[in-house]
Amino acid sequence: MTTKSTPERATSANDLDTFSADIGLLLLRVVFGGLLAAHGTQKLFGWFSGYGWSKNAAAFDSMGYNPGKLFGTLAGLSELTGGLLLLLGLLTPLAAAIVLGTMINAINTTWSGGLMTGKGYETALLFAVVGATIAFTGPGKFSLDSGRPWQRQGFVWGAGAVVLAVAAAVLTLILKWTL
Fold this sequence. Notes:
mainly alpha
């Protein structure tokens, strides 16, 4: 008895559509998660022509996130962790919440630059929307979550991820404004 690959088993149009959606989610997760993780390494280690930890901490101080060492490290770790978890499709609702919460703060920081100016919040908004989208859709079949007992997706988990992200972002902003 031979085992057929996923494309070979996909015989109906519906099977192929599902397979295509899973490929699309894989591409989205891998590219987006990889880029976000790279942003985190720029902040933490100075990789990919980034500032590195010391300059990143100073930048966070100048943006009003005091102490900059704490908030800059949290931002870098959030981008690195959230990006890697999304890339792998692991603990997806939590990963999406990490990304969305981080990007809400990035939107707040870049709000005065406006939208579509090159200095505004369009990139953070795009990253936030991708994070929220993956929270609701789930990671797809080609992920470490797929078929596992901890796999969670759908409206309730997407909404939970959004609520967690907003709560964490608001708490971070309150700390920014009061410290």
